[in-house]
Amino acid sequence: MLSDITIGQFFPGNSVLHRLDPRVKLILVFTYIVAVFIPDNWLGLALSVALLLVLIGLSRIPPKVMIKGLKPVLPLLAFTSLINIFYVKGTILAEFWIFKISLEGIYTALFIAVRILCLIAAGSLLTYTTSPTALTDALERIMSPLKVLHVPVHEIAMMMTIALRFIPTLIEETDKIMSAQKARGADMESGNLLHRVKALIPVLVPLFVSSFRRAYDLATAMECRCYHGGEGRTRLKQFHMVLADYIAVAVMLLLVVLMIMTNLFSSAVL
Amino acid sequence: MAFIETKNCTVRYSPGTPFEKEALSAVSVTVEEGEFVGVIGHTGSGKSSFVQLLNGLLKPDDGVVLIDGKNIWENPKDIRFVRFQVGMVFQYPEHQLFEETVYKDIAFGPTNMGLSAEEVNERVLHAAQLVGLPQELLEKTPFELSGGEKRRAAIAGVLAMEPRVLILDEPTAGLDPQGREMILEVIGAYHRKKKATVLLVSHSMEDVARVADRVLVLNHGEVAMFEPTNMIFSRVQELESIGLTVPAITKICKGLREKGIALPDNIYTVEQAHAVLLSLLKGGDVRAV
Amino acid sequence: MWGYGYLESGGKQVTMFSVNDLCFKYEEEGADEKAVVLDNISLNIQKGSFVALLGHNGCGKSTLAKHFNAMLLPLGGTVFVKDMDTKDEDKVYNIRSTVGMVLQNPDNQLISTIVEEDVAFGPENLGVPPEEIRKRVDNALHAVGMYDYRLHASHKLSGGQKQRIAIAGVLAMNPECIVLDEPTAMLDPQGRHEVMETVCRLHREQGITVVLITHYMEEAVLADRVVVMEQGHLVMDGTPREVFSKAQILKDMQLDVPQPTELCHLLHHDGVALPTDVLTVEECVEALTLLLKK
Fold it and tell me: Which is nearest to C19 in space by CA: C92, C57, C58, C72?
């Protein structure tokens, strides 16, 4: 069923990671993702993996969930690894037909696979420990300087909030409409591509119509509750940096510095 | 003859995960051909799962579903043909209208059945007439119709398949009393004219009391009661204990019985109560105006 | 806090809404004279009252309701909320925070994924300081009995719970009146009960004025005033007892009558000496017992 999709899910909790200021989390995850690309040696990479493992431990997110979240990227990972194994030249380990496998190729493939896993895991950790609304909120506040450049920051954030709120509702609705059309004999499982695309019309049209109806209702509800854009709006949640946030920033800075140092003093793989 | 039969049907949601939940537990129910069955139970009682089992939208994890003596999952590829036989009207069916015209929308089901153009045409016109949609509305887009008309058009889309079993999930939800009346009449007419077997899923005890021959009460995925309508409403206490409300009229009769007035315990419509009380009042020594 | 009780200024009755000669029609292309939705409506609603608004779909009751919080503006006549003219653009947020509105579809009026953030939406728009929002959100959630759910995902709640959250969202704006447009139409009996219980409690305990649009007569019976509309006109107005005692008129309009009332009417019609203004099961049992035990 469509409702089994869990990517970007939030797991409510009360761990240190859950309680960090979402702005800090957002910026640190971004920094981490960039930082993973700094080291060119095993030591540096090991450091970033270690930090990630510690964070996962702190978040109390079950490792099972983390692994499940990484599953969708496996095909991509396999593809890039294969390319790297065959593409990178160096000491040849094995050879058949036109393919040559080099030691360097395997190293590079491994290295890049670990990097990709790290950045996906870091991203998931962010969404697992931060409520979607806190995330959009944080994004709105981080981007608020852009208002000077007439970027509609509040509107973008509000659109994201509403999208997040309505995705589960629309998924549920799609399930319902599909059942109803199947009950009228709609055949969505067989036939060629063109046939299948055509078979989607009885699902998509009602879905669009209902989305418009929902949008109209929602707009009414928002107006009834005095919505008039971002101007003069206050927020329930105030973000305050506390000690833990400063520590988090310090740890991340330390990691970046350490990584740069490993680049200088350790032998490079790449 | 038993027309619908479920034997020990169990349906599980999210099997094999910590969230596994039995929506239905070993449900065995038999419905005769031409019966009008009311299906009641509170939200989460399994009533929606039960009816979706009958037209193959849900597959039982255990047990079999027989329609007209035939296991509907015998050949999974033929499940579509089961759906032509067992028509299903979902909640808010007007939300599934999609064609450019009402006519085309009603024709969707019959066309999927592979009927000839004349046959489809005949069925569309017949179904429209059954639900009381005037001919001139058929060429309009469904979105121009009023709420009640849309609902009727959507129901016509299922009736046009002329299913031998008609299942309706809360067909009167969200309508005003006038619209509610209209829909119940349409269902009753289809039941009588086509000798169809009807299952009406509803929260409204009043509606069920008025139209059903037998009532199936589901609770926690199990059959709590399945008896003729007049027997069901004599079990007020049991119904209330599983969180169902009985019609006000049933409560009045219960109240009167508790005051020592000899009334039969199977009254569930205003008309019945009226008749019984009138004969009691006129027969007894009662002042009349 | 909200709810000053409904006797302000020394026990004098205060008018919540005064509607004078209100006319309205939707301006659509090709709309003809028939499109008149509200035709010369005049109506006063006292602060602290509980008014049920009945009528068919399309009789204009929702349109009238939308005039109560300036979502629609009169084409003719005036609508005053207390002393505020709904046409006065400067007062619009004042009016909308005074008159909160709850709509029919529980899925379409929650804005945020998290319950407490949704409840905060109104006060946030009004620019209320954060500490005050916190207090209002907590109070509102307590008032509808959903405080324990404050961190839950709103889309996973039951229909009745969603509607209670919608009510809390309105309460957080400190309204004096709540207008509910068929809030129970899409709910199961359990949800309907939860919502009505909440509405009645708010009316009783906090003195909030309630305007309830409904098709369910059991709900209308709970009000202290019933107004019936048909084709843009007010056709009946009185206490539930007065209105439902005219069962035949309601039946002629194809509106429901509570079953106890209907039964007494039928018997009365057959010459049985029964009162015709019976509303509840208990009253009906009592009246019939009196007759039958004689």
Answer: C72
**Total of domains in chain A:** 1
The answer to whether the Cα torsion of A41, A44, A50, A52 is positive or negative is negative
B158–A183 C-beta distance less than 8 A: yes
Tally the residues of chain A. 270
Q: Is residue C9 predicted with pLDDT exceeding 50? A: no
User: Does the beta carbon of B179 lie under 8 angstroms from any beta carbon of chain C?
Assistant: yes
In a mutagenesis test of the B interface, which of A184, A203, A217 is the best target, namely the one with the most B β-carbons within 10 Å?
Answer: A184
Out of A182, A184, A206, whose CB is closest to B158?
A184
The pTM of the full predicted model, rounded to 2 decimals, is 0.87
Instruction: Report how many Cβ contacts below 8 Å link chain B to chain C.
Output: 107
Provide the domain limits for residue B148: 88-163
Tens digit of each residue's pLDDT, chain B (289 residues):
789 999 999 999 877 766 778 899 999 999 999 999 999 998 889 999 999 999 999 999 999 999 999 999 998 888 889 999 999 999 999 999 999 999 999 999 999 999 999 999 999 999 999 999 999 999 999 988 988 899 999 999 999 999 999 999 999 988 888 889 999 999 999 999 999 999 999 988 888 988 999 999 999 999 999 999 989 988 888 888 888 888 899 999 999 999 988 888 888 899 999 999 998 888 754 333 3
Closest-CA distance of chain A to residue C233, Å: 25
Q: Indicate if the pLDDT at residue A8 is higher than 80.
A: no
CA of C52: how far to CAs of A178, C182, C226, in Å? 38, 10, 5
> Strand, helix or coil at C116?
helix
B163: Cα within 13 Å, side-chain hemisphere: 31
Interchain CB contact of B147 with C (< 8 Å) = yes
Average pLDDT rounded to a whole number, residues A68-81: 86
Contact A234 C129 (CB under 8 A): yes
Which contiguous run of DSSP H or E holds residue A200? helix A193-224
Element (H, E) at C21: strand C15-25
Token pair of A216 as six digits: 């109209």
Which residue has better confidence, C31 or C20? C20
Q: Tell me if ipTM is over 0.85.
A: yes
| Chain-chain contact of C263 with B270 (C-beta, under 8 angstroms) | yes
The pLDDT score that the predictor gives to residue C4 is: 39
Domain count, chain B: 2
B276: in domain:
no
Q: Does one domain contain both B158 and B172?
A: no
Let me know if residue A270 belongs to a domain.
no
Residue A254 has pLDDT above 60, yes or no: yes
Closest CA to C220 of C202, C204, C242: C242
Mind telling me how many Å the CA of A13 is from chain C's nearest CA?
Answer: 10
Phi/psi-derived region of residue B100, left when phi > 0, alpha when psi is between -120 and 50, beta in every other case: alpha
Range of the domain at A82: 2-265
For residues B157 and B149, the answer to whether their CB atoms sit within 8 Å is no
Q: Please, what CATH class does the domain formed by C7-240 belong to? A: alpha beta
- The pairing of beta strand B70-71 with beta strand C7-8: unpaired
What mean pLDDT value characterizes chain A?
87
Query: Nearest CA to CA, how far is A176 from chain B (Å)?
Result: 8
Residues from chain A contacting residue C128 (CB–CB below 8 Å): 234
What DSSP line would sit under B102-139, residue for residue?
A: HHHHHHHHHHHTT--HHHHHHHHHHHHHHHT--GGGGG
Q: Which of B84, B90, B161 comes nearest A176 by C-beta?
A: B90
What CATH number did the domain enclosing B199 receive?
3.40.50.300
